[in-house]
Design goal:
Layout (H helix, E strand, L loop, with lengths): L4 E6 L6 H15 L3 E6 L6 H6 L3 E4 L5 H15 L3 E5 L1 H10 L7 E4 L9 H17 L4
Parallel strand pairs: 1-2, 1-4, 2-3, 4-5
Helix pairs in contact: 3-4
Length: about 140
């Protein structure tokens, strides 16, 4: 019987709260026999910490967002995760698009909420949030 596979997608691996939480979650999942892979849209200072913990990292650095979505789609198709778990806004968007048609349940963790002063940015993000909500299995 194959282990459960969880693909975590995060906007970056810089030092921060979401990244630290993801590091702890992936370590615990591994301890409990879950296969874990992390896709990072941008590399960062925490990458080595994940690798030291035996967490497989797929870094999509140095590409425009569309190229990252295509690569993420390839990772999803080839690795065939049971769950996709996206962290932070850019990863939410990329995961939502890459998972069309729905290949696996998509779970979103909202670590931050944008408090944007520009009306157009607030409205744009509200529209994106509605699309993401409809395409995800849970937030």
């Amino acid at each position: 019987m194959r282990k459960i596979r969880v693909l975590h997608v995060i906007s970056s691996l810089e030092f921060g709260g979401a990244e630290n939480q993801l590091l702890q979650v992936t370590r615990e999942l591994k301890k409990h026999g879950v296969e874990v892979k992390v896709v990072s849209l941008h590399s960062g200072s925490q990458k080595e910490e994940f690798e030291r913990g035996g967490i497989s990292i797929f870094d999509l650095k140095q590409q425009p967002l569309f190229g990252k979505v295509i690569q993420l789609r390839r990772v999803i198709s080839s690795w065939r995760p049971d769950i996709i778990h996206a962290h932070l806004p850019h990863a939410e968007i990329a995961s939502t698009i890459a998972n069309i048609p729905k290949k696996a349940p998509l779970i979103i963790t909202r670590h931050v909420t944008g408090n944007y002063s520009h009306r157009w940015k607030r409205n744009y993000l509200k529209i994106l949030s509605r699309i993401i909500l409809k395409r995800s299995s849970g937030i």
